Amino acid sequence: MNDSAEYLRQFTTRLLEFEGALVEPSESSGIEALLPAPLQAALGAPEIVRFGFAAETPPAVQKVSLESDWLEKFERLLDGRGQRLRYFLSLEPPPLSDPEKILAHGPTLQNAVYRAEKIERAWTRYLIFLYRFSAVSDEKREGVISLGLNLSSGSAIDAFCGVLLDAVLGAEGDSVPPPHLSLPPDWSEKRLGAFFERALPDRIQNHIAKFLQGTQKRLDRDLARLRDYYEGLRREAAARLQKQEAARDRLRIEAAGREYESKIADLRQKYALQAEVELVQKLELIAPVQRVHLIVKRRKAERRITIDWNVLTRRLEPPPDEWSYAVDTVRLVCDDASHITHPSAQGPCPQCEKSYCRVCFPRFCPKCRGTAHDR
């Protein structure tokens, strides 16, 4: 059973137990539930229900998946509850005595150098957003994606979201932070909006990349068939026209051309992609970290940044990306203001091909005043 199915199994178990059901594991990683009368009415289900989460389930088992209607039933049952959670995770960070060893697996600054200034224990606030999306073309794909953000460093921690969510699901006891903790403040609405605007589209596109490839392949196939068919009609009418010079054959060629363009428009409408995104849940997790203070040098400029070492994953988080919030570790430092970004955010202008920093100039290229951005 994959991670998505396991999350669905854990979620279904906890939800049913919270609503008063008796839940026990069954064969093939499924569950069997005894539902009280109010829960039966709310779900439209019998007293005893067997749920399955694997790709293949027996006929008597109710399959719970992203495509099944059970998620909609659970959503109606929740009625808005559980969409936002704040949790305090009390852990003791292990000591880190060798900063250079940690940084050996750290950021890659392609045009700058850095060194560790100090490491200290600290606390941070993680925001984890779970989005449900649907992409519809000639076929439909649905899924759930997670965005993770460290409010202290600005790092995108998508790769750590699963571990953090597991820690919250498995935690017990008090989740209220003590009042004396020094925590990073909330981001402004404008800054958080820029994060979603720049980070979310790329995540969705990466998630449905294979689906888009398949859609494009089917579109190309149908376009080729259509082109071959109408090209054959055109050649046949043109051959008759050369022999007979008939006005009727000229009209056939013109009509075939108009019909071909109409069919092309129909195909493009059929394969047009529509995507919908909906926020499902937001988690704020307060957790301890080991904070690594770095001095970054680019030519004569110098800048200090921090990167957190995640206690749960025991890994250094990605460096901040001040434009696109990329999740990999490769970065460039701009010459004008030492902004740290993914290389694509300091690439050439699509119009004049001069490189520039998108953080310094978010609206236009400073060389040609062009407004087209590659990200």
Description:
This protein is α+β, with helices and mostly antiparallel strands and 375 residues long. The chain has 3 domains: 3-81; 87-209 and 276-341, no CATH class; 210-274. It is built from 8 helices and 13 strands. The protein has helices spanning 3-18, 37-43, 70-78, 99-103, 161-170, 189-207, 209-244, 247-271, and strands spanning 22-25, 31-34, 48-52, 62-63, 84-88, 108-109, 113-136, 140-150, 274-298, 301-310, 315-316, 330-333, 340-341. Strands 5, 7, 8, 9, 10 and 11 form a 6-stranded mixed sheet that branches. A 4-stranded mixed sheet has the order 1-2-3-4, covered by helices on one side. The protein has a 3-stranded mixed sheet with strand order 6-12-13, with no helix packed on it. A hairpin with a 6-residue loop joins strand 12 and strand 13. The radius of gyration is 28 Å and the shape is flat. The two termini are 36 Å apart. The mean pLDDT is 87.
Task: Please tag this protein with its features.
single chain; 375 residues; alpha+beta; 3 domains; six-stranded mixed beta sheet; four-stranded mixed beta sheet; 34% helix; flat
What's the structural blueprint in terms of helices and strands?
Layout: H1 3-18, E1 22-25, E2 31-34, H2 37-43, E3 48-52, E4 62-63, H3 70-78, E5 84-88, H4 99-103, E6 108-109, E7 113-136, E8 140-150, H5 161-170, H6 189-207, H7 209-244, H8 247-271, E9 274-298, E10 301-310, E11 315-316, E12 330-333, E13 340-341
Structural class: alpha+beta
Helix content: 25-40%
Number of E strands: 13
Average pLDDT value?
87
Count of folded domains? 3
Main sheet specs: 6 strands, mixed
